[in-house]
Structure formats: C-alpha cells, structure tokens
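Recap for those who missed Tuesday's class. We walked through two folding examples back to back. For each one, the amino acid string is listed first and its predicted structure tokens come directly after. Nothing is annotated here on purpose, so try labeling regions yourself before you check the end of the notes.
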Amino acid sequence: MTNSAPSHLLPVFARADLAFERGEGAWLISTSGERYLDFTSGVAVNALGHCHPHMVAALQEQATKLWHMSNLFKSPDGERLAARLCEQSFADYVFFANSGAEAMECALKVVRHYHFSKGHPERSRIITFEGAFHGRTLGTLAATGAAKYLEGYGTPLDGFDQVPLGDIEAAKKAIGPNTAGILIEPLQGEGGVRAPSNAFFGALRDLCDEHGILLVFDEVQTGMGRTGELFAYQRIGVTPDVMSLAKALGGGFPIGACLVSAEAAEGMAPGSHGSTFGGNPLAIAAAGAVLDVMLKPGFFDHVKKMSLLLKQKLASSVDRFPGVLSEVRGEGLLIGLKAVVPAGDLVAALRDARLLSVGAGDNVVRFLPPLIVTEAEIEEAVQRLELACIALSPERKQGAA
C-alpha cells in the first residue's frame, strides 16, 4: 500500500501505512478493499459511525442553501443549536468554534475575563492536573503541561499551576490570590483513561465556590454521549461553570463549542472574542443532526448497554491473556485496556486483525467504537482482540524462538 511519491503533508503524524476510501456505520473500507472494524471513530469523533443517513441528508440539504456568511450577521440555525445545547445543559450561552483546542482557548479566555470584568485582572492563573490533554495551541499546550508536547516551542505560556490528579490537598494548596479557576477532564482520554472519584469533583466544586473561582470541564472527548450521558458531568453529578465540546459534536464535521453559565459570561461583550468560521452553517447543520439522533428516546440506554457488554467481554479477555492485558478502564464507550506488552505493539496487532484502536498514556489502548455499535460488532471486536493477544502472547513468542 506504500506510495513511493513524496508526501507534501507536514510530517507531524506517524501515520500507519493504511488508507480508507469509504465508511459504513462502524466499518471502514480500505483503498485495497479490506474491511476494518473501527473502534477508533476518528478518536471519539464519529459518534454516529460513518455516513449516518440523517447526517448525510442534513449536510446535503444545507450544502444547497448556504456555506458561509460570517458572524457579522445573525445565524438563526446557530441560535437554535445554541438553545438546544443550553436546554440540555447548565449553560446559558454558547460560543461556536472549529475544534476542541479553539473551544478550550475560549474557555481559558472566559475564565480570565470573568475576573477582569470584576476588577481583579490579577486573577488569571488556572489549576490543571497531571496527565491532562487540552489541545495543541500554545495556550492549551501550556494548560496540558506535558514536556513531550511543549518541547521546542520556547517558554510555555504562563498562568497554569499543575497538581497531581485526585489530590485535593494539592489543589487546595495551589489556590492563591491570583487563581482564576480549575480546569479538569471528567475522564482523561489521552492521559490513559483515568478519572478520580466523583467525590473529588465535588470537592473541586466546593473549592471553586469557596474561593469565588470558576470550574471548567474539558468535555472535548467525553461530551456528546461518549460516557453514557449527553455530557459526562451529568454522570458525575457536579456542574461546571464553563465547558468545552468538540469531537463528536459534529459527528465528523469540524465544530467546537464553549458552553458558559450566565455568571461566568459576565464581561464577555462584542470584541472580547471571535472566530471567522465558528458557527459555519454546514457545521451547525451537522451538529444539529447529531443532536436529533442522540436525543431520541433510548439512545443513551443503548450506549450504556453496549458499554456493559464490552467491558464484561474485555474483562474476560484480560483473564485469558494476563501476559498481554492487565486492566479494563473507562465509562460508557470510552474504554481503556491497560496493556502488559507495549501499547503500540497491541495497536499494531489489532490493526493486523482488522480492528482499529488508538493508544493513550500509561500504556493504555483506547476502544472508542461509534455509539451506534451493535452487540454483533462488539462480539466481532473481542474476537479480533483475542487474535491479536494470541499473536502477542509470551508463550507463542517463546515457542517461535
């Protein structure tokens, strides 16, 4: 499948030697005609699978009407989508962006501007947590705080204080007169499918209320049904003041959103933030179609049912292959398999078995099937996982030696 022609794409991705030409539900068909079961979903993006008929129809209809008109003018469809998101969440306002990193940049600016508008411009620092991943812009990289992402880009943007995940005493000690807010993922995806207890999130909410600072949830990966509720904060039972969304919001079409409570939005006025493409009519149509499907009765019941089935079957695989797998983690259909072998080796072996997965921190491999995945597809995925485990098992390697 290797193409000998030189690539003119900036070489910032370690791409597998594999290309796809079309998709159907939970399946991708390669340029050589092979079918792959897609448990990557574009890294939690294709929540409704590939080419969902309702999404296709919505985009086709919108493509004949209007593609772009800028935010200089009113957007009736954007207003409707924002109202639906607010109706389903804590928020009173929505800012539409183009990606998760942009949604997070808006969240960071909202937090800082909130205190500025109240006469406290010195309150600009935000507490974040080890293992986080918040995006690839200079601002969100600084919030992420991981050296491997920051290396080579100069002095990181100031204003972030990182503490260990789940350590409430460290979070308390990090709060000072310049603290503006606390930023956390309800469930770390890139960081290894890790989450502290619900009680920890409740303690963070109490800290924010006590000190007059804002709580921000990064739901770029966990939002839009991935953990079994429309938003992960609803499962945890702790409400943030600001929340970022992207990935599954557009079901494959690029769109991000920053959801903000009325209190947190104080001070945001014309000129305080903006975007050329944010709220693009095509993106709005795609996100509206995603909500149409997800808000139908029974949708999240299906996600929870498939989650339980997948976790049970994966736990059985862990028991069968202790030399390859050690633990099942996660919520909903954001599932992590902690590996004994190098996670990259497991991802490659799964790919050889025509099952697509994605690595994460802490030697974890993520399973991120579309939320419309069926029982039969989960059964098929586990069978392919076990083929990969057999190929990687120490006993087989010793026999081959």
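Example two. Treat it independently of the first, because the proteins are unrelated.
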Amino acid sequence: MRELAAVALGGALGAVLRYLVGAIAIERLGWRPFAATAGINVLGCFAIGLLLGALARGETGGALGVEGPGPAAEGWRLLLGVGLLGSFTTFSTFSHETLALLREGAFGLALGNAALQLVLGVAAVAAGRALAGL
C-alpha cells in the first residue's frame, strides 16, 4: 500500500509540475506547445537518468538520505521516478527503457521499440481523433 501511495503522490505532483512548466513555457516565454512538450520531455529524460543513475550507484546520500540500493532507494524510485517523472512525462520512462536495451546490446529491439512506439502512438492519436469525428 505504501508503494501505491508513493506513486500516487508523485503522480499528482508530476501532473501539476508538467502543467506549470508547460504554462510558463507557452504563456511567459512564448514557446509553441510542441516546443514546450519537447522541452518537458528532454527535462524529464535528464531527470530520470540522473535519479535512476544516482539510485543505482547509491550516490544520493545526503540529498535523499539513501546510502545505497535497497528499500529506501526503491521508495524514492517509486515516488520520484515512477510517480513524479512518470506523470511529468512518460517519454522519460520510454527513453530509459530504450537506453537499457542499447546497453544490453539489443540494438534491433531498441530501434524497434522506438519506431514502434512512435508510429503506433501517432497512429493511435489519429485513430482516436477519427473516432471522435475530428
């Protein structure tokens, strides 16, 4: 139950953060919506790489009070990685998983994963809009 609470809390915070960052980029900085989304995705990718890398190496020490991989690190991964960053942008998780495939030497799977998600994602949006009559 604690795991679900951590993901839910992080998810709520990530959704609000995404909204605020997007609104600031569009309304105050004059960015077009696609540019705001791209910026959010890149920021989320950097953040998940930093977070998961630090947790994996046990280097969050003073910042999160985690000495190494274990239950405390898993709690932070759920709160910040799955919840906050998962809500801020699922693109960060997609990118992390694709990098993991590349590091495993599964280049074909990594390329297939990237191409499949991009093509099917755009196709699914088009199908949804068509079904909605747009």
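Answers for example two:
The CA atoms of residues 43 and 92 lie 8 Å apart.
Helices lie at 2-28, 33-57, 61-64, 71-88, 90-103, 107-131.
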